[in-house]
Amino acid sequence: MWQCPKCKQEFEKENQSHLCNEKSKLINDYIDAQTEEVQPLLYQVRDTIRTALPDAQERISWRMPTFWSGRNIIHFAAFKKHIGVYPGVEAIVYFGDRLTEYKTSKGAIQFPYDKPIPLTLIAEIAKWCYETE
Fold first, then answer.
1. Scanning 44, 79, 80, 98, which has its CA 20 to 30 A from the CA of 37?
2. How many other C-beta atoms lie within 10 A of the C-beta of residue 122?
3. Strands 64-68, 72-78: pairing kind
């Protein structure tokens, strides 16, 4: 793991490009602005996606934490009763049989706070999104 000396973010690749000079755009800032109860869940989702997509850059896009590699790959966000994950329409269709217990809509999945967050499934979806488009 390589750690940026400026922002202290860790990356798989040495000298990986990222947005360390734009503090307001860091995913940490987004997560830290959420309630204390939700923060650990968001960090788990972020770490899961970061592990699944070690070469992707982290940024804020559409006001949500986003993993990017030449394009937006997957977003996630905190809401009052759930974490929203936004992998796109094709991923919802592809993983539809495994998402039946969650509320989904065009391109979005809602993971309620009162159920365990399916981190393995989120990692699989993130990898699929990265590899398919």
1. 98
2. 22
3. antiparallel
User: Which ranges of 83-118 would DSSP assign to H, the alpha helix?
Assistant: 89-94
What token pair was written down for 1? Answer: 């793991």
What is the model's pTM? 0.80
Residues 68, 66: Cα–Cα separation, whole Å: 6
9-35 confidence digits (pLDDT tens): 666 777 766 655 554 358 888 999 999
Distances (CA, A) of 74 to 20, 37, 99: 20, 23, 16
Show the beta-strand stretches assigned E in the chain: 2-3, 10-11, 57-61, 64-68, 72-78, 82-86, 103-105, 108-112
